From TrEMBL:
<dbReference type="InterPro" id="IPR023943">
    <property type="entry name" value="Enolase-ppase_E1"/>
</dbReference>
<dbReference type="GO" id="GO:0043874">
    <property type="term" value="F:acireductone synthase activity"/>
</dbReference>
<dbReference type="GO" id="GO:0000287">
    <property type="term" value="F:magnesium ion binding"/>
</dbReference>
<keyword id="KW-0028">Amino-acid biosynthesis</keyword>
<dbReference type="Pfam" id="PF00702">
    <property type="entry name" value="Hydrolase"/>
</dbReference>
<keyword id="KW-0486">Methionine biosynthesis</keyword>
<keyword id="KW-0378">Hydrolase</keyword>
<dbReference type="InterPro" id="IPR036412">
    <property type="entry name" value="HAD-like_sf"/>
</dbReference>
<protein>
    <recommendedName>
        <fullName>Enolase-phosphatase E1</fullName>
    </recommendedName>
</protein>
<dbReference type="InterPro" id="IPR023214">
    <property type="entry name" value="HAD_sf"/>
</dbReference>
<dbReference type="GO" id="GO:0019509">
    <property type="term" value="P:L-methionine salvage from methylthioadenosine"/>
</dbReference>
Length: 254
C-alpha cells in the first residue's frame, strides 16, 4: 500500500508554509475569541495556561463578575500569545497543532482556503485505486486539516481515495517506531508499505522500520541537495512525479 507525506510531496511547500501559515496568523485570534467555549479550544487553553478546571470554568462562565470577565480577556491574550510564539518558532505542541487544524478547517469550510495539490496527485490516486492499492496519509498536520485539504482541494473532494490518515499522535515522523505503529494499525507488514516523502530524515526512519521508501523531489532544478538526499538518490528510488512510479509499475506488468 501507499503512505504519503503532504508538505513538499503531495502539496507545495509554499502552500503549507506561506498560504496556510499566513491564514493561521491572521485568523487565530478571532477564532479563539469566537470559539472560546468550544471543548477543543478549552483543551488547548488548559494545556497552555496550566489552569485547573475549576478556575478555568469559573473564568469562562461567570459573566456577572467584572473581575472574572477581565480574567477571560487576560486568559485569551495569554493563550493567543503563547500560540503565536509556538507558531513563529515552529515548535508547535500537539494541542496547538490540533487548534491549527480547527482554524484551517474553518477556512476551508468558508471557502477561504482551497487545498493545493500537484497535478499528478489525482491521476496517481485514480490509478492506485484501480490497482487496489490502499492510500494512507501521514503528516505533521492534524488529521482534521489533512481531511480538509484533500476534501476541498483544487481538484475537488479526493477523500474517497484515501483509506486512512495519521498525524503526530502516532509519533514523530523522525522515529522508526511511528512507522511500525502505522503498519500495525493498517494490518500490513512493513515491506508491503511504500512511503513517499521529500524529507530524507523521515525516509531514513521509515526505512529503519522496514518500509520501502521513495524520495520525492518536486523541484529538480533546485541546486540545493543535502548530503542525505544524495545518499538516498544512490540507494533508493527518486521521483519528481508520482506518475513515474505508476508508469514504471505498469511497464513491469506488461
Amino acid at each position: 500500500c501507499i503512505l504519503l507525506d503532504i508538505e513538499g510531496t503531495t502539496s507545495s511547500i509554499d502552500f503549507v508554509r506561506k498560504d496556510l501559515h499566513k491564514y493561521l496568523i491572521q485568523n487565530i485570534q478571532n477564532y479563539i475569541v469566537n470559539h472560546w467555549n468550544d471543548v477543543e479550544v478549552q483543551k488547548v487553553v488548559k494545556e497552555l495556561i496550566f489552569m485547573n478546571k475549576e478556575e478555568n470554568q469559573a473564568a469562562i462562565h461567570d459573566e456577572n463578575s467584572d473581575v472574572k470577565c477581565k480574567d477571560v480577556s487576560k486568559i485569551q491574550e495569554d493563550t493567543i500569545n503563547k500560540i503565536k510564539n509556538e507558531i513563529q518558532s515552529d515548535q508547535k505542541s500537539a494541542a496547538v497543532k490540533e487548534l491549527q487544524g480547527l482554524v484551517w478547517m474553518d477556512g476551508f469550510t468558508k471557502g477561504e482556503l482551497v487545498g493545493h495539490l500537484y497535478p499528478d496527485v489525482v491521476d496517481a490516486f485514480k490509478i492506485w485505486k484501480s490497482q487496489v492499492k490502499d492510500i494512507y496519509i501521514y503528516s505533521n498536520g492534524s488529521v482534521q486539516s489533512q481531511c480538509m485539504l484533500f476534501g476541498r482541494s483544487v481538484y475537488g473532494d479526493l477523500r474517497k481515495y484515501i483509506a486512512g490518515n495519521f498525524d503526530t499522535n502516532v509519533g514523530s515522523k523522525l522515529d522508526a517506531e511511528s512507522y511500525s505503529k502505522i503498519c500495525q494499525t493498517i494490518g500490513k507488514s512493513p515491506n508491503e508499505v511504500v512511503f513517499f516523502s521529500d524529507r530524507p530524515k523521515e525516509l531514513f526512519a521509515a526505512k529503519e522500520a522496514g518500509l520501502q521508501i521513495v524520495l520525492v523531489i518536486r523541484n529538480p532544478e533546485c541546486p540545493m541537495f543535502t548530503e542525505e538526499m544524495c545518499l538516498l538518490k544512490n540507494t533508493d528510488p527518486t521521483i519528481n512525479s508520482f506518475l513515474e512510479v505508476v508508469n514504471n509499475a505498469e511497464e513491469e506488468e506488461k
